[in-house]
Amino acid sequence: MKFASFFLVVLLFSCQAEVKDVELPITSEDNLVESITAIKEVMSAQEIAWNNHDLEGFMKGYWNDENLKFYGSSGLTKGWNNTLANYKKGYPTKAESGTLRFVINDISKIENGNYWVMGEYHLTRPVGDANGVFMIIFKNIDGEWKIVADMSC
User: Phi and psi of 151, rounded to 5°?
Assistant: First the structure.
């Protein structure tokens, strides 16, 4: 019985030593708040650019890469240049682009420090208003938050 008690004590201490060596990732609340604030700032800058019919300025919120993905009513578009071309085709004048307002319904952290944003867009336009929903994925690339995927309808 003494041997069993000794074995249990040794096992218990060895397990505790292993637990101490494991480093758990620490997600600070400040970092979460900073990330969400920065993402909202990107979207606010996009609203301002759009409302000035500055589509290139609006696209500054997107990852300027051929791996950018945009999924909308026309299907999947890959690449920053193709996405900009679609915006220019669909919104050639201020009358078509109108005034944009985002409503953010949720921002959640997902794997690898990326975030998704779910919300609504509202376009007030002389040619007729347009409203819809979106889900976009933000990634911090070289210290800047960029949209890497967008699903809008």
Answer: -125, 110
